[in-house]
Amino acid sequence: MDQLQSHNLREIEGLNQRGGRTLSFVDLIEAGTMTAELVAYCWTAIAHGASFLTAARPGGAGKSTVLANLLALLPPGEEITTFCGAGARTPTQSSSGIEAGGVPAPALQRRRCDLAHEIGSGHWYGYIWGTDVARFLSLADEQRVASCLHADTLEELYGILRGAPLNVPERLVWAVDLILFVHVLPGRERRVAAVYEATGEGHRLAFALEGGQIVRQGEVVLPGRLGAGASEMAQRLDAVQQMLETGERRFDVLRESVLAAY
Asked: What are the C-alpha distances in Å from 228 to residues 109, 144, 185, 219?
């Protein structure tokens, strides 16, 4: 694995606040948290530049784990840079030549995914709040952004982002291509209960939990809007199913398989 991908894995591992092995999308599919079709859909959207948020109201529901697995679907050559709010820390040079804190190193310009560990008011590394949230989401005009926050419904998420003290402009909220909500069911089972895709004037439901199953809702349009067709989604689904058949669960190995499939 090259220097850039080793750097990206370290950035992703920084989301793991509970210790132990970072669960992979194979783990999540086998646990019923996601489906192979949903992973393929997200992969197709992400391959074409989609920005994304994951959300769950309770802590420990799995929003950071799902976020980590969406980051595992990034294309080759894309740098993950942890975005730090104003005053959080002094930007430092990353191992791959990009300054941390959301600022590109002058000598090297490349595709970048700005990652905020959480949109939340805590004073932890990678957490952002206040005016920094709008500044972060505005980066989606030029590059990819990814984060998570505490909310269980789209209305609740809109209220947090649009209301005080964040006051994020509506167009910046609508610029987030994918929003995935994770719910904890009786028995502590975790499910991606709803997935919304951007329409340009809000978000529409793309996947929803029905009878304990994650079900596609009508015609999924986001990958098409990003320039991908049904045949590409089918190829991604085949790749996911092949990875499932190997029985491999290690996050780093599956990340390499994703890169090779590009």
From this structure: 26, 17, 33, 14
pLDDT tens digits for the chain (262 residues)? 799 999 999 999 999 977 889 999 999 999 999 999 999 999 999 999 999 999 999 998 999 999 999 999 999 999 999 998 764 433 333 444 434 333 333 333 459 999 999 999 988 999 999 999 999 999 999 999 999 999 999 999 999 999 999 999 999 999 999 999 999 998 889 999 999 999 999 999 999 999 889 999 988 788 888 888 889 999 999 999 999 999 999 999 999 999 999 9
* Alpha carbons 149 and 172: distance in angstroms, whole number: 16
Q: Residues 6 or more apart from 225 whose CB is under 8 A from it? A: none
| pTM score | 0.90
- d(CA 164, CA 6) in angstroms, rounded, equals 38
Strand partners, 52: 146, 178
